[in-house]
Amino acid sequence: MSHKLETKAIRTQMERSQYLEHSTPLHLTSSFVFEDADEMRAAFAEEKERNIYSRFTNPNTSELVEKVADMEGAEDGLAFATGMAAVFGTFAALLDSGDHIVSARSVFGSTHTLFTKFLPKWNIETSYFKVDEPEKAEELIQPNTKILYAETPTNPGVDVLDLNYLGDLAKKHNLILVIDNCFATPYLQQPIKFGADIVIHSATKLIDGQGRVLGGVTVGKKDLIREIYLFARNTGSSLSPFNAWILSKSMETLPVRVDRHCQTALTVAQFLEDHPNVNWVKYPFLKSHPQYELAKKQMSQGGSIIAFEVKGGLNAGRHFFDNIKLLSLSSNLGDSRTIVTHPASTTHSKLSTDDRLEVGITDGMVRLSIGLEHHEDIINDLKQALEAK
Ligand SMILES: *Cc1c(COP(=O)(O)O)cnc(C)c1O
Questions:
Q1: What is the pLDDT of residues 175-222, one digit of tens each?
Q2: Residue 253 in contact with residue 292, Cβ under 8 Å?
Q3: Superfamily of domain 254-387
Q4: 77 DSSP assignment
Q5: Would you call 249 helix, strand, or coil by DSSP?
Q6: Where is 317: in which H helix or E strand?
Q7: What is the CATH architecture assignment of 5-251?
């Protein structure tokens, strides 16, 4: 019988050891032992699934991966040391020299650097469509295009891309659809239902949810995951068992945490929308969001990230940041602590001004990652910083 997402996040667990522990134990071991020569031979010949060496698999990383795969409705998956290792591992394993990517323009800063600075070294080029013109994606497809790539909601603009449309486009042109589902988490949105072949998570964000460890997870079709696994196991981007143990434990509370994040984010977004010193607010479940109807169709709630612009440009923006008292000025997101980020001067500072404006990052734009503090305290801090003389 298939369980609900909340139950999968908790009850997908590794077999108990002889000690019958209730909570998952931590398996800090680099390698595993064999009974005899034949068992060792069989393990290396992959005649039977078992742990050999923690760069390949470890019970703690397997438990984390199984949870994410269960919630996403994926056949298989694997864990990485960071979200970027998951993104890079996916491209490196699935692409050959001369292949081509079609991607949304708005992607995570390091993913953008990967497309523009590193993949071209291996003769892999990327063409971009704007998030408000996804219909242009089809014109960008070439005979050598292999991957269609997008994040939704996007970082940091919180735009929403139509997963159904991307799934159909990938199918029509026989492309691998890769979705970075970091902002939505496996709890709010399952891109595989809409035709994604691979789904990537930076587990560093809401999956950990408490700003402690880095991690990445890739899930999807079994044959594609096999390719990515072979690349990862031979190049050493594995997640540590300790971080996997933390992340798997965090998964148990992901649904309740994300429920609260979303509830508070909507309340804060409504407050900002009504504030006279704010130019605009973008949050997927605000009626004013250009893709509100679409967001409602593919996400169960609006997520924890809000983008907004302080009136008065760069100086007003800086003044707002300098007056924040309770909330954290940091570049991370998906933490129990609310985080205020200025993308133009931090996460997206490597982009040219034109490239920044093209993805909606104005000088005064603020990204808010709503935490788990009481919503009145979050609003009060934002209010006094917006109104500071
Ligand atoms: C943070 C992030 C990543 C990269 O994850 P790391 O764990 O920091 O390597 C990738 N995509 C998105 C959307 C992110 O927010």
A1: 999 999 999 999 999 999 999 999 999 999 999 999 999 999 999 999
A2: no
A3: Aspartate Aminotransferase, domain 1 (3.90.1150.10)
A4: E
A5: helix
A6: helix 313-322
A7: 3-Layer(aba) Sandwich (3.40)
CA of 334 to the centre of ligand 1 (A): 10
pLDDT category of residue 354 using cuts at 50, 70 and 90: confident
Nearest CA to ligand 1 atom 5: 83
Residue nearest to atom 12 of ligand 1 (CA): 108
Name the residue of 80, 112, 155 whose CB sits within 8 Å of the most ligand 1 atoms, as the mutation to test its pocket: 155
Domain-by-domain residue ranges, the chain?
5-251, 254-387
- Token pair, residue 116, equals 């523009």
For the cut 80, the answer to whether the pLDDT of residue 311 exceeds it is yes
Q: Closest residue (by CA) to atom 1 of ligand 1?
A: 202
Q: Which residues line ligand 1 (CB under 6 A)?
A: 82-84, 87, 108, 151, 155, 180, 182, 202, 204-205, 214, 216
**C-beta of residue 242 within 8 angstroms of C-beta of residue 28:** yes
- The Cα-based distances of 32 to 39, 53, 58, 59, 358 in angstroms read 12, 6, 9, 11, 51
Q: Count CB atoms within 10 A of the CB of residue 19.
A: 6
Helix (H, G, I), strand (E, B) or coil at 382: helix
pLDDT digits (tens, 9 = 90+) for 374-383: 999 999 999 9
8 Å CB contact between 341 and 347: yes
Q: Which atom of ligand 1 is nearest to the CA of 182?
A: 13
Query: Which atom of ligand 1 is nearest the CA belonging to 334?
Result: 15
Total H helices, total E strands in the chain? 15, 12
Torsion (CA) 7, 252, 218, 292 in degrees, nearest 10: 80
Phi, psi torsion values for 48, nearest 5 degrees: -145, 140
